[in-house]
UniProtKB/TrEMBL annotation:
Gene: pepN_2
Residue intervals of the ERAP1-like C-terminal domain: 586-895
GO terms of molecular function: alanyl aminopeptidase activity; metalloaminopeptidase activity; peptide binding; zinc ion binding
Alphabetical list of SUPFAM superfamilies matching this protein: Leukotriene A4 hydrolase N-terminal domain, Metalloproteases ('zincins'), catalytic domain
CDD domains xrefs: M1_APN (cd09602)
Name this polypeptide is given: Aminopeptidase N
Matching InterPro entries: Aminopeptidase_N-like_N, Aminopeptidase_N-like_N_sf, ERAP1-like_C_dom, Pept_M1_aminopeptidase, Peptidase_M1, Peptidase_M1_aminopeptidases, Peptidase_M1_dom, Peptidase_M4/M1_CTD_sf
Keywords for the protein's UniProt record, in alphabetical order: Aminopeptidase, Hydrolase, Metal-binding, Metalloprotease, Protease, Signal, Zinc
Length: 910
């Protein structure tokens, strides 16, 4: 599974002073422990608790599945396979089905057996052909022990269930353009039971035999290719699929609808790509197939295991709540990966990355699967790392690790600095908690730590360990202990201490390199390591020292030296005799997950020669850290703006430009949040706006740089002159050489004009909807309406979010919430803050994780002590929040505290 990059903080900012490796900010959201000699408790596949509580008291009447009950149920069920028969159509709001669960019980039951099934209707339950009484509480079906026997039981359940509209279960989408209906499944972590009744836990793997009745013009897709299609008398078709191999139910796929289909192959593996008909013209299938073929070529060689699932379908689906999902042999992708214009290279690389990420899961996640949701991080982190590795070694892209640093690593640092940070590996008590851990630790930090292992163990040793692990546990389940044991055996190292330090402890360390020189050569070099006060543990890690010197007009790396540091102090004897650095970068090329404090000489040289540094990667890391110092309230924002506007124009590397562009957008938002003189604010806003407009106009025609500055312009523009430019770009009376104002860019401009009530803003939105009636356009129109700085607009869309959400799809709720209170409209938020904070209790009571997360988008980051107190009071008033809502509110409180410190620094500087 992968989240959409543009739904994540694009440059998730942590707090650090001028240091070369730390964290970067979200766009406008914006004592040493003695580890001892005991091995890490990595053998616990669920938690240390035994399932005795489940045995003695049975299952609680609650929507989630607990780890204890899942473990108990696993002990009862020796084997299970499913036959699923469903009837689908394009007219009704629900579907019906029958499931036969061939269940082998290991022992006689002492309490009812429960079968997960949320929100449906159960028509009948039969065991071995005989109907039996059952209980159903809207969460699970219970069958009394006397109706089941040790050994084989055939459990047959006839049921119906509403189609979903929130992107989970079996989701139904009706295309507003042509009326066609499309269905797809999304189940992770615990939504497969919204499609069919079964034992919905990852360690109860099963084989699936499927048949589907569907409209005659529909394509039906699951893990296997169909073996027979029959026409029926009522104008439908009946699809029959052969039995699959064993895998967990959360990655079971069923997609159906009149999808457009493209076909290709990857060295004999049949490939299909699908999208709805009205989107098909914008899909570039050759990109998808090329990236898919390159990924297959890499992974089959790297894993030394042929692709295990025979065919490979990729289905681009609407209303998807995440980026993509690794359904077995039928992967789903968010339509956000389809652009209605030419993609930048960064966007093409994001597409290649998500294709590789999901494919890596076919082996690590689908072929071999975690026992329980505490292992979610491992499969996601592994796929994150492997996707970047695949692109770095077998694709057209030559800046893969820069993008890893810019996106994944920064998200990890940001998450690890939040008050809600957690160990990479941690107990997960129930399925509701599993969802709350889809974050920058799960993906970003885990991926960063796994990237360190090949440097620490050796690249070939790491690869051999992965191969051994996959071969040993194929079609089964495995634990963290299994994985780390396999790596350690391959490398000849005991990884217990490494595992305990890295995977069971949160927080990020900081290193500093100090050196002495004589006669222009190093005579001594020491690396010191420190830990945050809250998480005081020191770690071992391999870094690369980069030694830079000024040669003519360029700052060039003259030497590089791999070093493994350990403990508080590491003497680097191999550095003696190397050239004396003018700049010493202790984490050159970003091998390590660590912050770096530069020595004073390096800081001075960097500030003087930022544009002379030959390495774009080093420049990227520097720019990243300069803005980090702002977020850490170590550098006034105004000082950073002056530095950026004076130095950024010479930059030509697109990744550095992307970082600077994003930081300028964040700077604009912070200026509005700060308590500062209006004259000073307006002056700096104007400088940013004029700079971005100038860069947009001077960028090479049709370049990625030009597209990047256009996106930035639609965020920082605010003056009448800039809004006039936007209006003219929209109506065609103004053009910029090489810049195509495609349909998506048109909506960006319309949202901007609605944001400032410029021109015929409302009429433009309605007119655009008439010529672009796509669901993407409808979401953009909602954003345009919700973002208007008018009390009636805020009141209407708050009411829709809180009281009328059943009339809107989740994607529409998120579009409104994300546009309600941009930074310049915080005074307007004050009119509605009581309503918003009072609503927290009601939002929580609905126990809807996806809605919780959508609601929190509307809560703004502010920059004053009163706002900090308000978030604190909201948490105090609601001590029993769902995990996702509690986490989000605590993060908002901390982000508001940080912003308050930044504002106070800016004020004192003036």
């Amino acid at each position: 599974m992968k989240k959409l990059s543009h739904l994540l903080p694009p440059f998730a900012v942590t707090l650090l002073s001028a240091a070369i490796l730390s964290a970067c900010g979200a766009k406008d959201n914006g004592e040493t422990v003695n580890t001892g000699d005991q091995p890490a408790p990595v053998s616990e596949s669920i938690t240390s608790a035994e399932p005795e509580a489940a045995k003695s008291s049975g299952r609680a009447d609650a929507p989630e599945l607990t780890d204890q009950y899942a473990k108990w149920r696993k002990q009862q069920i020796a084997n299970v396979d499913y036959s699923i028969s469903v009837a689908l159509d394009d007219k009704n709001e629900s579907f019906s089905g029958t499931v036969i669960a061939d269940t082998k019980l290991a022992k006689a039951l002492e309490q009812p057996l429960t079968i997960d099934f949320t929100g449906g209707r159960v028509e009948s339950v039969a065991v071995d052909g005989k109907e039996v009484p059952f209980q159903y509480n809207d969460y699970f079906i219970s069958i009394a022990p006397e109706h089941l026997k040790t050994g084989d039981n055939q459990i047959r359940i006839t049921y119906s269930h509403p189609y979903s509209t929130d992107g989970s279960g079996l989701h139904r989408f009706q295309d507003p353009e042509d009326g066609n209906v499309y269905l797809y499944t999304h189940f992770e972590p615990y939504k497969a039971n919204r499609f069919f009744p079964h034992f919905d836990q990852p360690d109860l793997k099963a084989r699936y035999t499927v048949d589907v009745k569907a409209p005659a013009d529909w394509q039906v897709v699951t893990t296997a290719r169909e073996e027979k299609i029959e026409d029926t008398d009522d104008g439908y078709r009946h699809w029959h699929f052969p039995q699959t191999k064993k895998f967990s139910s959360y990655i079971f796929p069923l997609h159906a609808g009149p999808y457009k289909v493209w076909e290709d192959d990857a060295d004999g593996i049949p490939l299909r790509l699908m999208a709805r008909q009205t989107l098909a013209a914008d899909v570039k299938p050759q990109d998808w197939f090329t990236f898919t073929q390159q990924s297959f070529e890499f992974f089959q060689d790297y894993f030394d295991i042929e692709y295990p699932f025979e065919k490979y379908d990729q289905v681009i689906v609407p209303d998807f709540t995440i980026g993509a999902m690794e359904n077995v042999a039928a992967v789903t992708f968010n339509e956000g990966y389809v652009s209605r214009g030419d993609k930048t290279q960064a966007e093409r690389q994001r597409l290649a990355n998500v294709i590789a990420h999901e494919m890596a899961h076919m082996w690590f996640g689908d072929l071999v699967t975690m026992d329980w949701w505490n292992g979610l991080w491992l499969k996601e982190s592994f796929a994150t790392y492997m996707a970047y590795l695949a692109l770095a070694e077998n694709s057209e892209f030559d800046d893969v690790w820069e993008n890893f640093y810019l996106r994944t690593k920064q998200w990890a640092y940001d998450s690890d600095e939040l008050v809600t940070t957690h160990p990479i590996e941690l107990p997960v008590a129930n399925t509701a908690e599993a969802f709350s851990n889809f974050d920058g630790i799960t993906y970003g930090k885990g991926g960063s730590v796994l990237r360190q292992l090949p440097f620490y163990l050796g690249k070939e040793e790491f690869r051999q360990g992965v191969r051994n692990y996959l071969k040993e546990h194929a079609y089964g389940n495995a634990t963290l202990a299994d994985f780390m044991g396999s790596l350690g055996d391959a490398a000849g190292k005991n990884l217990n201490q490494w595992t305990k330090a890295w995977l069971y402890q949160p927080g990020v360390n900081t290193i500093k390199a100090q050196f002495q020189c004589e006669n222009n050569q190093i005579t001594g070099l020491t690396i010191t390591q420190t830990a945050p006060e809250d998480f005081p543990i020191l770690r071992d890690q391999t870094i690369q020292l980069g030694i830079y010197r000024l040669e003519e007009s360029s700052m060039v790396r003259v030497e590089s030296l791999p070093v493994t540091y350990s403990g508080a102090t590491t003497q680097v004897s191999n550095a003696v005799g190397l050239p004396c650095p003018q700049i010493l970068n202790p984490n050159d090329e970003d091998w390590a997950y660590v912050k770096v404090t530069l020595d004073e000489q390096s800081v001075n040289q960097l500030s003087q020669h930022i544009n002379a540094i030959e390495s774009p990667f080093t420049r990227l890391m520097l720019w990243q850290n300069l803005f980090d110092s702002v977020l850490a309230a170590k550098m006034p924002l105004q000082e950073w703006i002056d530095f950026a506007l004076a130095n950024a124009e010479e930059e030509q590397n697109i990744n550095v430009i992307r970082a600077i562009s994003s930081h300028l957008q964040a700077a604009k938002a912070y200026l509005y949040r700060f308590d500062m003189p209006q004259e000073d604010r307006d002056d700096q806003l104007q400088q940013i706006e004029e700079y971005v407009w100038a860069q947009l106009n001077s960028a090479p025609a049709g370049s990625d740089e030009q597209k990047t500055w256009f996106d930035s312009f639609t965020e920082v523009a605010f003056s009448q002159e800039a809004l006039n430019h936007a209006e003219k770009l929209l109506d065609g009376s103004l053009s910029i050489d090489g810049l195509e104002i495609d349909q998506d860019k048109r909506w960006q401009l319309i949202v901007l004009m609605n944001r400032y009530l410029h021109g015929n803003y409302a009429q433009l939105a309605e007119q655009e909807l008439k010529q672009d009636n796509t669901d993407r356009a409808r979401n953009s129109a909602i954003s345009a309406k919700a973002i208007r700085p008018m009390a009636e607009a805020k009141r209407q869309w708050l009411d829709n979010i809180l009281n009328n959400r059943d009339q809107f799809k989740l994607s529409q709720v998120k579009a409104a919430a994300g546009s309600l209170f941009p930074a310049e409209q915080l005074p307007l938020f004050e009119e509605f803050s009581d309503q918003v904070f009072t609503a927290i209790t009601a939002v929580n009571s609905e126990a809807d994780t996806l809605f919780n997360k959508a609601f929190v988008i509307a809560l703004p980051i502010q920059c004053n002590p009163a706002a900090v107190d308000r978030y604190g009071q909201a948490l105090a008033d609601n001590p029993l929040l769902m995990p996702t809502l509690d986490k989000a509110l605590r993060n908002r409180k901390q982000q508001t505290e940080r912003c308050t410190a930044m504002s106070q620094l800016a004020t004192s500087d003036n």
